[in-house]
Structure formats: structure tokens, C-alpha cells
Amino acid sequence: MVMSAASGVYVLTIETAGNQPYIFASNKLREQIGASQLVHEATTVWLLDALGWPDPRVADDPLAFHDALRNQPPLQDGARHEIMQAPSGRAITLFRDRDRAIAAGRSVTLRALRQAPGLDISCGIAQVDWSAPGSLQEAIRRADRDRGRRAAEVPGALARHARLPIVADCDTTSFPAAARDHKAPEVTKDRAPAPARSAVALAKRRAAKAGVARMAQALGDVTAANPGDLLDRLERELEDGDRIGWLAVVHADGNGVGERFIQRSRELTDLSNGEYLRQMRELSLQIDGSALGALRVATSELVARDERGPGASPILPLVPFIVGGDDLTVLLAGADALRFVCAYLRAAAKDEAELVCRAGIAFVKPHFPLHSAYALSSQLAESAKAAKRYEVPAFDFHLLYDTGVPDLDEIRASMTVDGGTTRLHGRPYVLADPSSEAWVEQHRYAHVEHVTAAALQRAESGERLLPRSQLATLRAALQHGRHIADEQLRLVAHRYPAGLSGVIATTNGRPSLFIDAAETSDARFTRLPDVIDLIELASLRSLQEVAST
Description:
23 helices, alpha+beta, Alpha-Beta Plaits
């Protein structure tokens, strides 16, 4: 049965909000993984279940799900519904019947109330004039406005979980406790008292095993471990702060992806709504596939260089909390973060979608609140946007020694001297070949990577070519301004010429730690603090390979 021009068509949009705050509301890895799974299921598995798909769990396998979306029966050929877009956190579905659209929206949102308390999710519906080219774009906008209006009428998660009458606090979240968790690992293994858990925390914990299994699959099945065993091992690894040293929260997204969708939508305005739906879905799947492929390439590089030995227990090399569209949020050991990010950015740019991404890496100590670490990584990714005009992959990073200042603006303000004209860092960095663009050339990551490698080299006696004590002295001098820092440099430059070779620039014919910034004529910067931070990470593992080459 082919759809007639007079047939009614309705578009349903479903979207979750505040995904990262929901995931990082607790600092317990088990609850974070479970929250990630619930965000994923809300607009994929639950939607497919509401539509009557024979195997809704196909959504847990990203590549199989992409194939399933491409092979759907078209709405215009008589299908009752057709999914246009369904990355994690947002779905757009078309229906031939308004009641079916309402029923699907009701099914998903009621399921969220029951299985994912605390998750903010909303839906909106609008009618499409199927015979009029360009009407689908407008209908999606109207459905989103309807969804936004409905979302504004719903109380926030804390308001939905009242504390009156007075109840006990949850041990891991800010919500009121709902029950004692007698299945908690610390109870079953250590015979500890059962902790009090909120309904929000319990729901996340129930979803954790499915979450870790999906994450392993998203990474390319890098481990064959049982999901329950894998989850227990991940928690133990995270608790071992002395071994990890630093944790890294990475947030990455594509440059100009929103503009790409808008531009493509304008180009397709004159096509039929069915063809518009197909081509926009294909663009969404292409970007989703590009990001997933880059994630797998970067993960395989970590697995290939895993130094725990063949007898080590299988474990995920990283925890991908958000993998959807061009958005990526992962947690991994700080020693691996720079290598992972560089591999991810390069792989995404080389894919057929040519996804030029930016990333932010927040290095924090174990047990630091991950919601604050995520907020910092997001700010760092925004800082890397400075490279957007050059269309090159870029990233920014920060090692958070002072846990009381997690705001990037405050951090970077403290990293300037000489009345704000001298920056004590060279970030963000770009992954680019030698360039005629002065800004790109000054911010190439290869420069600081090579300088770090030189500083890590050792003489035949076994001593470093540039001792840490001298680095600390130079770093302390930077806080007094460039003139005092350069005077300190001149005291030691002749003693450590090989170790300082990549750090030293020339100003008025004299050695200097500072470089004139390309963006303004009266500003300058130094890469020395960046090198010191990389040496700190190299002491864990990540750049020792560079030093040995």
C-alpha cells in the first residue's frame, strides 16, 4: 500500500535532558555506568519496544542498529512508522496515525518514570503535510517546541522525590533513600551493613551490567569477560588510586556538525519528505558511524599497547559514558588519555565523514567528583574551539592540582602574568602538519611532544638531561613574570643545553622561555608548564615510549 497525498503523518520527537548531570550525579562507577545505559535505552531500546520491533536489544549493537535503521520499510510504502533518527538521547519517528504516535510517546515516558526515576525526558508531536516538500523540517521544529513546552511543565528530579515526611539520605546521591541495598558488593563480599539507596541509585545499579556489556561491544568487544565480573574489576581498579595516579575525563564533539545538518537540510528542501527523511537519516548515521569508528581505532591502540601483561585480568581500557552522534564522553586512566585523544581525533578526521573534532581532557585525582571533572572537560573542549577556523583537530587539557578551583576561566586567569600579556601555557594544541598559518604552527602538539621527549632523555650516567629540580625552579620563576623567568633560565641554560633545547626561544638575541603569540602583537606565551605536566603524566607511562625513540 503506497501512501496517498492525503494520508495523515505525524512526527514524534523524544529527547532526554541533562544527560551528563544525570550520569555523574553519583561518584560511584556502577551508578554512572547504569545511568549511561538508561540514557541510551530511553530513546532506542524503549522506543523500539513501543514500536513492536521483534528485537529491541538490537540497539545495544551500534552497527547492527545502523543497518536496521537503513533497512526499515519506508513510511511512504505503507509502513506504520519509520525512525528518522535515534542517537543516544534523542529520537525522531514518523507515524501514519496520531494515536500510535501518542501511544509510543506515552510508553517511553511512562517507562522512564518506572525504570529510570530522576531521568528528565519529554516528547512532542506535530502533523506533517506529507505532500508538501519541506514540510517535514517545519513539523520537526513544531514538535520540538511542543516538547519544550511540556518539559517546562514538569518539576525537576529533586522536586519529584520529596523529603517530606523526613526520610534518610541516600548514601551516594542527593535524593532521599528508598530502600536498603542488600545486593551491594560491599554487603555480599565484605558483610558490611546494607547501604541506604535512593530509587534513582537503585535503578542505575540495576542497569549497570547491561551498560558495561554494551560499552564493551561499542569498543569492539575488547574483552570477553562476564559483565558482572568486568564491572567488579572496573570498580576495584578505580578504587586503586595509588596505581592509577591520575584519572582523565575526556569530552569531545565535532566542529560545525550542527551547521552541517542545517546546511544539508536547506539543500534538501525541494525534495519529497520521504527522500528528505532518508538522506538526513543517512547523514546522522554517517556521523555516528564515524565517531564510533574513531573510538574503536583509539581503543584498539590502547589495547595493543596494554602493558599489564598476558596474565592480566580482562578489563575495559576506558569507560565510554556517552557515545552518540558526534558527542563522546569517556573516563580512562590519565596515563593513556593523551594517546587516546590524539588517536581519536586523527581517526575521526580521516574517516569518510571527515569529522573534525575538538576535545577537552580534565586530569583529576581518583575520588574527585566526576561531575566537576566533566564540567571542566567540557570547558576545555570549548577552549579548543579556537582552532575551528583552521579546520584542524584540536584539544586542550589541564591537570587539576588545586581541587578547589575547577573553573577554567579562573584557572587560566591564574596562568597569566605581566598584567595579562604573558600566558604560562601554550594550549590549546592542534594535530596538524607544519603550516604556513602562524597560529597553527605555534599550537602544533608535535612541538611540545618533542620537547617533552628531549626532557625525558637520560645521559649515559642515567641522570636526566633536564633534572626535575631545575624544572621546578624554572616553573616557580614563571610566576614572577617573564623577565625574572628568563634571568633564571640564563643561569642554567649552559648546564643543560640538550634538555632545554626545545624549550628555549630567542628574544632580542638572548635565550628566552617565551614566544611572541601569533594572535596579538603584544602577547607572549611559554610551553614550559605544558612540558612539565606531560612529564608528570610520562612518569605514569604514557610518554615513555616517545622518550625512548
